[in-house]
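Hello,

I think I submitted the PMV job twice by accident. Can you confirm which output corresponds to this input? Input:
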Amino acid sequence: MKQSNNVITVSAPGKLMLFGEHAVLFGRPCIVTAVGQRMKATVQLLAEPVFQLNAPDVQITNYQKSMSELGKSDIPKGAKFVEFALYNFLERKLVSFAYNGVRITTKSQFSSQFGFGSSSASTVCVIKALSELTKIKLSQRQIFDLSYKTVLDVQGKGSGFDVAAAVYGGTIYFVTGGKVIKPLDIKNLPLIVGYSGIKADTVNIVNQVAEKAKKYSKQIENIYTSIQTIVENARKSLLKKDWSTLGELMNLNEGLLATLGVEGNKLADMIYAARDTGAYGAKLSGAGMGDCMIALAPPSKVRAVKEAITKAGGQVIDVKTNVEGVRVES
Ligand code: PMV
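Support: Only one job matched these inputs. Its output is below.
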């Protein structure tokens, strides 16, 4: 499709945390992979000084306000990330903006309920699209930094691992706030993914862990340090495609997450069902209590593991992993 110079469509992948959730909020590393279900954003520059947004996946239709009101007054939940992305981009004043307004439409290939990081992916899409349209050509690092700032502006917390997956794609070794962003050279990752049907409230769960850490600070620090060791080992096993060790490391990581209190009964049922039917290992992915679990299994057991997850009340989702980061579509 021919690209006109005031409209562009970009897409960014969703993410799945493989190892190191929670600990990554406290200076430790994690490993995240980008998933093939993508978020798309079409961004158009307008002559009138208005911001317009349609994001049907998060119940935003015909949202409109004056550009001078950007970032102000009550912003509906579903519009926050996109609006702040636009606001932060313009705040940088890197560009003399030849147009006055912006129209954005987002469309996701995945449900915002899965916990695949739709908010971060849409933030990254908007910043990438604006950088292309205004010919500033931000580097991946600059797109990461501006998108991460946007995520912190909106939700106050977050390691930025989801932003890194959306920008860089692939499978990444990542340290809090992007102190380290290291792509891992792996070709495929035969993950089985099960959705619990429960929406995880990440900020709430992070706060619950913080409460626990007030009373048991030493013990929880030790858990984070153990998770760090698991992440370092997992990085090596991933590069060697040593799936059985990787599965064992998943189980170890899950045990520590359970100790933090974030396992949740439904995820636990799915995880143990996967292990009982021959998975090398299984764990939750993300904040816990809901969203998704992941499992690794030998090819001969994949079917049985999927059936067991379904029987435990989960929904198996077909995902491609290790996919390309943010890109221009048309
Ligand atoms: O719930 P998710 O998929 O956004 O994952 C949260 C992972 C945490 O480590 C708990 C938070 C973070 O931002 O790293």
